[in-house]
Amino acid sequence: MNNNSVRYLNRTLLLACTPFLGVLVWLLFADVAVVMGESAFPKLESSAAEGQAPQPAANAVEGLSKAQETASETSQSIKKQIKLYNQTNEEMKQIVNKATTQAKRPYEIYDRIITSKLGKPSGTIDTKNIRAQLFYIEADYFKAYALKLKLKTGEAMQMALGGDRYGGAETTLAAVKRTGAFAGVNAGGFADGSGSRYPLSTTMLNGEYVGGFEPSYSDLFFVGLNESNELVGGKFTNRQELDNKNVKFGASFVPVLLKNGMSTTIPPKWQSSPARAPRTVIANYKDDQLLVLVVDGRNEGGSSGATLAELQLLLRRYGAVDGYNLDGGGSSSLVWNGRVINKPSDGQLRKLPTNFLFFK
C-alpha cells in the first residue's frame, strides 16, 4: 500500500470517529457540571425544588411570627390589667367618697342643729380660710349679734395689738382696716398708765408673752387660740401650764361663764356692777367652731344690756361648751365687712389695746 492509500485510510477513520469523540467530550463535561452542581448546592436545589425558603430564613420567620404573637398577647394582657386597675381605682374612689360623705354627716347634722338655734344668718362669708355667719338676736332687754365661725386654716383668726405695739390702742374698725381683716371684735381688758393703754394681765401674740406671764388671780382668766385652732381658756397658775397649751395668741379678762356646757358661779361683784351692760363673749362648740356674742346697751349704768346670767343662758341654749366674758361696756365692738354692726355705748368706738380679727 502506497503512502497515498495510507493517508486516505486515516482520514476516513478520523471522520468516522469524530461524532463519537464529540459525544464523549460533551458527556464528560456535562457529568462534571452536574456533579459539581449537586455537591455545591444540594440543599438549595432541594429546598428550591420543594418551594420552601432556606432553613435559617425559615427559622427567623418562624421566630418573628412567635414574637409578634407573644407581643400581641402581652399587649392584650396589659390592656386588661390597665382596665382592671382603672375599674378598681374608680370603685375605691367611690368607696372613699362615700365613706368621707358618711363620716361628715354627723358633723353636718350637728352644724345644722347649732345653726338653727341661732336663726337665719343675715350674712355669710365662706372662703378657703374661714366660714363666718352673722346673726341678729332680739331679746326682752337687749339686742345682740352673733358670729358663728369655722376656722379652716391657721390664718383665719389673729389678735392685733393697738397700732401693732405694746401700749398702743386703736378701735376695732381701725384694726380691721389696717390688717386687711373682714371682721373683728374687742378682746381683753386693759389698764391705762403713763399715757398708754396696756393689755390686762397675761397676753400672748405669735406664741410669745407680751409684757410677761402673770399667774391668774382673783377672777381673771386667759383665753386664746392654740396651734390647732382650738379655743384655750381658764386660769393658769404657772407659765409652764400655759406653755403646754401651745397658744398662738390670747388675752385676759373676767369671769369664766361656761365650762363643759355648765354655767360657772358668777362672782358677786359681777352680778350687780353693773347688772346689765353691753357685753362681748367668746365661746366654742364641741366641733371647735367659735361663737362670739356682742350685746348692745344704751349706757353702762345698768339700764339696758344683758346680765352675765342671761349670757350663760344664751350660751347653753346655743349649745356652746366653754364661754368667756371679754371686755364689755364701751369696749364692746363688732365689725363685719368693714362696717360697725353694734351700737357702741360710748356713742363711738373705743380705742383698745387688743382685738380679735378674722380673715378671708
Automatic annotation (TrEMBL):
Residues 180-359 form the Phosphodiester glycosidase domain. Pfam families: NAGPA (PF09992). InterPro entries: NAGPA. It comes from the Bacteria. PANTHER family: N-ACETYLGLUCOSAMINE-1-PHOSPHODIESTER ALPHA-N-ACETYLGLUCOSAMINIDASE. This is Phosphodiester glycosidase domain-containing protein. It comes from Paenibacillus radicis (ex Gao et al. 2016).
